[in-house]
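In practice, a research group might receive sequence data for several interacting partners and want a quick structural hypothesis before committing to experiments. The following worked case mirrors that situation: the sequences arrive first, and a predicted assembly follows.
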Amino acid sequence: MEPLLDIVAAPESGAPRWRALAQRGVVAGVAGLWPISPLGLDFLLPIAPATEPGAAELRLYVQPEWRRRGVGSRLLTAVREQATPPRLVTKVAVGSPGQAFCRRHGFRHTRSWRHELLTYCDVHQAWLGELVDAEHPGYRLTHWTGDLFAAPRVEDLIRSPSRPGNAVLTAADADGEVAAYALAVVGAPSDPRAHQYGPAVLPGHRGRRLSRWVNAALIQRLREVHPHVDEIETAGAEDDPRLVATREHLGFRTLRRVHIYELSEGGRS
Ligand SMILES: CC(C)(COP(=O)(O)OP(=O)(O)OC[C@H]1O[C@@H](n2cnc3c(N)ncnc32)[C@H](O)[C@@H]1OP(=O)(O)O)[C@@H](O)C(=O)NCCC(=O)NCCS
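A structural hypothesis for the assembly, expressed as C-alpha cells:
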C-alpha cells in the first residue's frame, strides 16, 4: 500500500531539490538535480562524449525503511513534472536496487564505469621511479600544481605558473604540444584520498606507453606535493582495455562498478 506522504519542493536550497515528507516531518526520501560537474567522470578528456546542454545529474535517495513503497517513483515524477532538463543522467552501483528502479522507469544504460583505488603502501617506490625515468624519445614530462578554475583546458593549465593548490597535473609534451596527461585533486589535509582523472592520451600519440608514464609520474609527484595523501581513487570506462590495463599495471584495484543511466524527456529513452 502506498504510504501517506507529501512530495515538496525545497526552494530554500536555491537549486532543484525535493523531499518526500511523512507524518511529523519525517523525511522518507530526497531527490535533486545537479549540473553535470566539470569535475565529473568525463573531466578534461578530449575524447569525452559531448554532454547535451542542459542535461542534469539526478540524485535520488529513499531511506531503507521506506523502500519499495513507491516513494522513489513519486519523487521521480515530481522531478520530471517540475524540472525540464532534456536529459537526466544518473549513476548507480551494479547490482543495486537503483538499477532495477532505473530500468523500471525507462532509463537507458549508456556507460559502465569502474572505480579503482591505489594505495601508496602497495607501490614499490624504486619500481615507480624506473617507470618515470624511462626514456620516451620525442616526449618530455611537465608538471603543474594549483587550484582548478571552471572548465579548464589542460593546455592552459600546463602553461600557467604553478602555485600551491589542490590539483596536480602531469603531462607528456611533444614539441610544445600536450600529448598525454593525468590529473589529481586532493581534499582537506585530513582527507588521505585523492581523486585522479585520466590518464588520457591524445590521438596520434597512442601505443607508446604514454598513459603509464604520465600516470606513474603523477603518482610520484602527487606524494611529493601532498605527503598526506595515502591513496588515489579513480574511475574509468570499463570498455577501455588500454586504460584498464594501465591502471592494473600500476596497482589500482577495483573498488566498485557503476552504471550510467540516462532518460530523455519527451518519452522513454
Ligand atoms: C533506488 C531507490 C531510489 C528506489 O526507491 P523506492 O522508493 O524503493 O522505489 P519504488 O518503490 O518507487 O520502486 C519502483 C520500482 O522500481 C523497482 N525496484 C525498486 N527497488 C527494487 C529492488 N530492490 N529490487 C527490484 N526492483 C526494485 C521495482 O520495479 C519497483 O516497482 P515495484 O515495487 O512495484 O516492483 C532506493 O532503493 C534508493 O534510495 N537506493 C539507493 C540510492 C540509489 O541507488 N539511487 C539511484 C536512483 S536513480
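Before designing any experiment, note the following. Residues 89 and 119 are 30 Å apart (CA to CA). The longest strand covers residues 108-119.
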